[in-house]
Design brief:
The chain is mainly β. Helix content is about 15%, strand content about 45%. It has one domain: SH3 type barrels, CATH 2.30.30. It has one helix and six strands, in the order E-E-E-E-E-E-H. Strands 1, 2, 3, 4, 5 and 6 form a six-stranded antiparallel sheet that branches.
Amino acid sequence: MTNLVTLKTISGDEIIGKLIETTNDEKELGIIKLSEPFTLIFTQQGLSLMPVLIASKNKEVPIFISALLTPPLEASSEFEQAYIKQTSGLVFN
């Protein structure tokens, strides 16, 4: 199993990505760091994944914990397969 998580932001976006790090101490703002995060979007073809930051060259994206509605939760196997397909090109049968 990967460390793939999903979370919901206070703006309503659902994000899926690999959890790299969580910092939440008195000296720093609470931040979680995701690798290759994607936003779940609905299209005419159904549910799809879109990169959180399209123009950034960074694969790791920090997100302030204060911007979250939910904590990071384990992603379902269905979305784990979709994420792997999107990030690697592997197809599951």
